[in-house]
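hey m, so remember when u said the tokens were messed up on ur end? i reran from scratch. heres the input so u can diff it against urs
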Amino acid sequence: MPLTAFAPSLNAGTAGLRAIIGLLLVLGAMACFGGPSRATTGGDAGDGLAQAEAAYLKMIAGRDSAAARDAINAVVTAAIAHAPEHAEAIIVDAVTIVPDRRDDIVASVTQNYPELEIMVTSLALEPQETTKPWSGEVDLAILHATGNSPNDVLGLRGTVDYTSGRWTHAGLLTWDFAQDNESRNVARLVARTDTRYFVTDRFYGEGVLKFVADKDNGRRWSMLEVIGPGYKVLDEKTLMLDLAAGPGLQQIREDNDDGGRLRNNALVGAIAKFRWLFMEGASLSNSLLVLNDTEQIEVDNRTALTFDMVDPFKFRLSYDVRYDSDPDGDNTNKTDTLTKASIVYGF
């Protein structure tokens, strides 16, 4: 695909240079993907963007810069120049992949190909509904606990998720409160963040940070860091399974009764997340975290059954199991459980 074919479509100056760089990147991507096979993302087979062109647009979709805008416009311009008979399908594909660039794409096409202005206008392209970058939940729960704090308790839980291009960030904050049989106030605070960067649609790198403050587990507090590769084993609309594993570190501050020392442990962590939409408005999910060092195994598992109520409210039943093969302190149990019934507010 000679670059001279696109020269009349490029603006002079900096914008033109950015567009040329974008075209070179597309050509390189096409070579990596095995040539300009026009496997469409939305229209009839063979009509829309080539696989490499679509992959490149997905890669830069989340970037908000003039260079990204020029590169996207250059990809569309180049694709139309290579297959003008498929211009309509190419434009529709591009707007589907990067809906927030719709106006830029339409303006670029009509500027570089005036003869297509009537066709582009007749498409009556509507801005695509974009996925909200922010989402989350807040739930209030009544719990029954067994193990180190065997009592009925009150729980608060909040989650927030943010997506930007290939990055996803998930935050979790939980606070469980109770009075034990000796009328002591017992509280457990957990804060966790999971960050992912998707290299492909399925393969990603994941980093986990987790902080726990719970005196009933024989520790004043603990901090965990795990990083490693992950893969979306199942990625269907109704069924999802993600697996990740990697090395990590854990810092533990002992209770004063045990010396109050700060311990640092190297370990291996494994993360699994499962979700099944088994019927409309109902889902089953499971989140598993396993930590293993040379002397100890810790397991944190949560299974939840969620039912939609009146939007934005849901009802959830969940069961949490925490296992520690060598718990700190003299009187701690190896296994704690929490059974929760909660009302969830989604946003």
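this time it looks ok to me. The radius of gyration is 26 Å. if urs says something different then somethings off w ur setup not the seq
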